[in-house]
Write the structure tokens for this entry.
Amino acid sequence: MTNPHKREMWILGLFLTAMVSVFAALTWRVVDLKHAQREAYEKSSRRQKTALVPEKPRRGQILDCKGRVLAASIEAYNVFVEPRRLREYPDQIQVAAASLQDILGTPGPEICRMIDESRNPGYVKIKPGISPDERALVKEINLPAVGIETDWNRSYPANNLTGHIVGFVGADNTGLSGLELQYNTYLQGTPGQHVFVVDALRRPIAVQAGAGKDAEDGLNLVLTIDSVIQRFVHEALKKKMDEYEAESAVAIVMDPWTGAVLAMVSLPDFDPTKFSKTPQDRMRNRALTDPFEPGSIFKPIVAAIALDAGMIGYEEKFDCENGFWSKYGGIGEFGNHQYKMLSVREIILHSSNIGMAKIGLKMGQKKLYDGLKMFGFSSPTGVDLPGEEPGLVWSLPKWSKYSVTRIPFGHEVMVTPMQICRAYSILANGGYVIKPHIVRAVVNNQGEIIEDRQPTAGMGYIIKTEVANWMVRKAMTDVVNEGTGDQAKMENVQVWGKTGTANIAVNGHYDWKNYVASFVGGAPAEKPEVVVLVSIRKPNRSLGKGYSGGRVAAPVVHDILENTLRYLGAMEGETMPEPQVAATAQSVSTGI
Amino acid sequence: MSIKEPTIRYDRIIETVVLLLMATGTVFVFSAGATVNGDYDLSQFYNMTTLKQLIFFPLAVLVMYGVSAIDYRRFSVTQRPPGYSPTPYLSVIALLLLVAVLIWGVERNYSKRWLDLAPGSVYISFQPSELAKWVMILFLAAYLERYSSTIGQFGTRFVPVCLIAGFVVGLIVIEDFGTAAFIAMITFIMLLLGGAKLWHLFSPLPVVLPAFAWAILSSPTRINRIKSFLDPSGMQYQARQSLIAISTGGMLGKGLGRGVIKYGHLPEDTTDFIFSIIAEEMGIAACVFVILLFIIFAIAGVMVVFRCRDRFGRLVAAGIVMAITIQAAVNIGVVTVVLPTKGIPLPFISAGGTSMLLTAAAVGILLNIARHGSEPAFNLKNTIPVITNISQDNHESH
């Protein structure tokens, strides 16, 4: 018999050596795993153990000059799934689809299709804007890879009222039209991203420190628009447009001293909350996109250019050829009036085409062309809204020999309502250039002004103050008091303005049935508070109620002025209230 | 033989090492058991691994000290009057349970290894193969002591013990390949220690090797495990997750409780894969600490064997030390993907009631051997008052 004790010692010694070596090898293995292979495993595990949760910024609000909300973003909840997590287990897509079908009412096959066809393996939105009940149920079933995210829904409480101005955003909260498009970079904010450590069901456990960043909310816009004035204008214009069965209508109310647009209405209009169901035609902001031949409302501008250039005198008389001038292709008067010798004031007052043609001839092509360029015709006004058209003034070499007689009474040029409004504001403020604008300031959520968007005033006079004042206080005041604009007259405030009844050219020929009835003016004449443009396209002449600017547009301007001046506190006699600029600035600081 | 007071108290060393390992285990099982929901619903108490573990820790300590107070010689057949040794009874019970689990067992993770003893909210789930492992050591020690002089006889001594061991392994291999292979290995080493002839030991190999090969090939799960082990690109999910956990831990880890892999990313994170969690949360430092404790345990255990004066004690102690150390090595090997995945827990650390309490009991026996093994074997007055005149010399006469 062998010595058992010695044998045991051998075996156990061997065993011990073996085990110590094995443990040493295992230790080396652990160290090796941690050092040599750490990078590789860390990388491959990151995606599995962390989830990137994007935080959508809140889009900035759009407010009118008194802080009334025109556009705002409201929190909403979306259901989404992470397709690559569902694909890890068989049938998981079907299970998720079946559960979501019961809760959301979306057909299961439809959900499967959405998941299968998703190009993003990490995210597919199943249903946006779920109800609180649905949200609770989805949370309760607690399916892997199914989540709820916060989103922002854009809301437009003013609906149709400011649809053309504010515009709308698409499904991804990017501006597609109006201010939403123009100021998208200000409004959109910066998206944030949070990195969460998640469990196997991708439920967040903790935020990974230092790895994410918060979303920055978008900046807010404070407009020059006053939604009260906007409503006056909208109501008055809509009423008249319906009454005359007109095709479309445009109205602008502008502060002539700053170029601030207080109201801008284009009919037909649309509701930005239902933009997807709106025909393209209704979405056009005609005040900017539809140039037209202005007709008689162009006359005071040309006359002012001539007077300013010193080519004609205030008392100079022009022979108006007794109603028909056979030269230059033949020029007649509106309504077949017959005038003999008229001064500039009388030409404006009676709206004589022949008189204006003679002023044009006297001034010559060059002076006329330069003057129109100075007033900014044929180039966009630069108002901060997208889609503005420049209109058209032919360059001098393209002028026919008749052009110099036609342009002075508003033919052979195409202008936008905004351009006319700016030209009249220049006349109203004594002759200096203003820049039409609609955003007063960009402010952050703390109410601090980030950017003052009001253009610097006094960019230079383009006509003499004396000429501008005469044109407003004398010539165009008389139009209202004695001439075609009598329907715009008010009892205790002196209104001034000019009517226009322009023919609409169809295929190069003037159609004697279709007109644009316009009235541009302002009040009070001494120091105009506002300039108002109303232009109604194709009022139905067969209704027998008239179709001229004096009949159709002037009463609308009267209504707008009456309401607006009372609202602005400018109705007590001729005394001026606080300047509009100060009032706007105040509302900015209290706007949010 | 003279009584010599040991200069080093190996029982103290083993005690300390085991308590440290158990404490570490409790802390990390608690950490790994963290869930996002975190509802501590009392009705679910017995289903919650972490809270269960908190109960099992003191219970295991109690069992360890309780068993260590029992003289290990009571388990010997030779040193007890016929019928007094619990070892034969335990062997029969273990066998019956192994058969029972095949009939009434509860299937978990695709294998039928558990017996639910008291169905209901307060059930104790029990793994008979765990019991069989320890009883096998006692049985072999008793057998080898009883027939220490005649074990060299092939037909009458060696073949019977091989048949018994083969039957036990055969019962277990049906549902638990890892434990079966483990028991076969322990049996082999213990027979070697017990004086069996080498050519005897290698004679069953022509039968055993094909049997194991068949056991592997007959189960698609096992083939898959081995295939995925051999092909690193198609690495199994669990193994891959384990490596991620270990490799991202760094020198000192992510901090206790700060690991992320435990949030559902690593299955069996509180049991078989607890070492990954330790590596992730406390880094290399804790891994080395745990491995070092096992090495100390092995050395101290072997020293206990050397010190022990009677054959039974030496065999039992050697069996227990080897069982625990090999399990630890295999478990860490699996977790670090050096070995293919198999369901072997990390002793003292992994959550799991049966395994922990039985291991504690085994350590209890080892502690008793450490304390009393160096005493003369005839010191049986204390344990068997009836028979006082038995000496080591006439063992064989029983």
